[in-house]
Write a structure and sequence with these properties.
Strands 1, 2, 3, 4, 5, 6, 7, 8, 9 and 19 form a ten-stranded mixed sheet that branches. Strands 10, 11, 12, 13, 14, 15, 16, 17 and 18 form a nine-stranded mixed sheet that branches. The longest helix has 14 residues. This protein is of the alpha+beta class. It binds 2-OXO-4-methylpentanoic acid. The site of 2-OXO-4-methylpentanoic acid has 6 residues, from loops.
Amino acid sequence: MKIRITEKSNLSKIDFSNLGFGAGLSDHVFICEYKNGSWGEGSIEPYGSLSQGLGLHALHYGQAVFEGQKAYRQKDNSIAIFRPEKNLKRLNISAKRMLIPEVPGDIFINGLTELIKVDSDWVPKGENQSLYLRPFLFSSSEFVAARPSEEYTFAIVTSPVGELYSKAVKVKVEQSFTRAASGGVGYAKAAGNYGGSFLATHNAVKEGFNQVLWTDHAEHNYLEEAGTMNVAFVLNNKLVTPILSDRILAGITRDSILTLAKEWNITIEERRIKVDELITALKDGSLNEAFGMGTAAVVSQINGIGFNDEIFSVPIPKNGIAMRMKKALSAIRYGESEDKFNWMYHI
Ligand code: COI
């Protein structure tokens, strides 16, 4: 693979003692182009501008999908990525839905591996820190006819990150806007799913919430997912989470938590959850805890849920399922405990 090293590193501009989420991008990118029906080899380049003009297809028609994943500094100073094959699979599920050519596995894995090797100094060493990896795939022909693009670009940028939410979050049950409808693209990690959600989130933030808790498109009666994460509830000590559908993103953190929960003999219910059931449980105290799960959000406790004009408090136990899951995942990710499920891909 061709590797072109930057002449001017930005590493010294990063305050590793105070990492937020997603602002400082690392020195290099992986980029690979799809032209004339096939993928090129891909190369590592200094972070910089695109060469396309304003006719760029993705800007007009939004054939664009992405992934979120992380690389972790291990106890022995080496680096490992969490479940990259799952991200590859999901990227290609998203691509298929958006009529984008799938990315071959070797391009995806070699691109990630070589990029992390080149920017290994960007992988942070602090507690709860990691290198966020953002593979993305977009239509890169230049024309304005409303038809699929002929050319596509697969790229990866990375960014050293801390926690997305450093404390418990408040979510608002959304009763007017809709994130996804049946038959739509909700299960794909399509760029537009996020762009389309920003107005509702912006409104919720103005009301003092951190995120929206989406409900179904038809009646707003059933819980779906939160803006940046899947959600789970501990109801009468059972772990209950909305069952996946074509409106919900199949979270890799969600899958990992359900795998651990099975291992720990926790009763799991993947099913439709009525908003009414949640509100009743909030009122009668049978909701033991609630949390979000995602690559960026990791495991984020939910301490308040807004519905109509009320805000209900949710317990945030120190040693509940959420915090035990967070600790267990962290130990696996940083190489501090046995990787029983073979989740870590070592660079
Ligand atoms: C992730 O968790 O990786 C996401 O993609 C959510 C958000 C930061 C867009």
